[in-house]
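Reviewers of the previous submission asked for a worked example of the structure-prediction workflow described in the proposal, so we include one complete record here. The input consisted solely of the amino acid sequence. No template or homolog information was supplied to the procedure at any stage.
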Amino acid sequence: MKMKKFLAAFLALTMVILCFAACGKGETGGADGEKTLKIGLSGPLTGNAAQYGVGVKNGAQLAVDEINAAGGVNGIKLEFRMEDDEADSEKAKNAYGALKDWGMQISLGTVTSGACIAFQGEASKDNMFVLTPSATAVEAINGANAFRVCFADPQQGVESADYISKNAIATKIAVIYDSSDPYSTGIYDAFAPEAKARGLEVVTVQSFTEDTKNDFSAQIQAVKSSGAELLYLPIYYQEATLILQAAKKAALDIKYFGCDGLDGILTMENFDTSLAEGVMLLTPFAKNATDDFTVNFVKNYKAAYGESTMNQFAADAYDAIYILKAAIEKANITADMTSTQICDALKAVMTEITYTGVTAKGMTWGTDGEPTKPPIVVKVENAAYTIL
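From that input alone, the workflow returned the following structure tokens.
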């Protein structure tokens, strides 16, 4: 009888010990108890902007998988999680809360600008480090805790005007932009004065909003009547496809120039890509570039996810994870540090690192969180990008 009581007590004690051990594993995230760093992201996985979000998710996950397969960062594995915000500001706030509850220690912010402004507002309160791959609005990285990989909207506007002028592409410019969108307005507001300074004449400016973006016949007629030689489109590719269709219907013969939001136009479902022939756009990524970073990224991304979402958003997210790796190594981050401690340490080193990868060579950051990186311009030829 005593032996039975002893065995029962021993088994009960063993269960208690196992229970405590199991409870302890959740702190560091690894299923087997290994220490991990948790990286969170919010973006549109459903809805009209889902192609951007899926590309960012895939690019980030690809980099995480590669880094973990190589042993992690300072021996620490990375965990990555993305919440769907449908490019909506309120849903981005909710996504931040869900990621925080999950144990997020470092954030990639969000994919789109409007959502990132809301997300970053919450992250700033918590001193959570943010490195957004693709949110371009200036306000998206307000706060000392936030940095970005992509170009800021004003930089794209200035670079566009400079390129058009330097290469004598046109002198009379028409513009169609989304006055309800911070991405589009941010680029246009920088483009207009730079174009004037460069001697370019903006002959007509046409706008649309979220509620009026389905019919562009009136804007196209105004562009046609203006005598413009080039139509500048600082907008996303979904609306651009409708504009190109309306331009064909109106027999508008004009050059087109856009920014990174047009990336994705060649993979838009049911879109006649011949309508995009000759379109020029600023982008940090061209999948037919021949440098080793791009070649390897394209090969690995294609093998894992196919080509339909392989765009500059995916490339920026891939680089974002490797940028974090460089910063984590330099700052000697450990998995048991709090998110606030990690943020303070990463902020201190971000202005000291230099990064070369898929979307930039010799990329650096200022204290304002803005990157220094040269853009490239591509032109659509035979349904593919040609680097100009």
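Residues 1-31 have pLDDT under 50 and may be disordered. We consider this example representative of the routine output the project will generate in years two and three.
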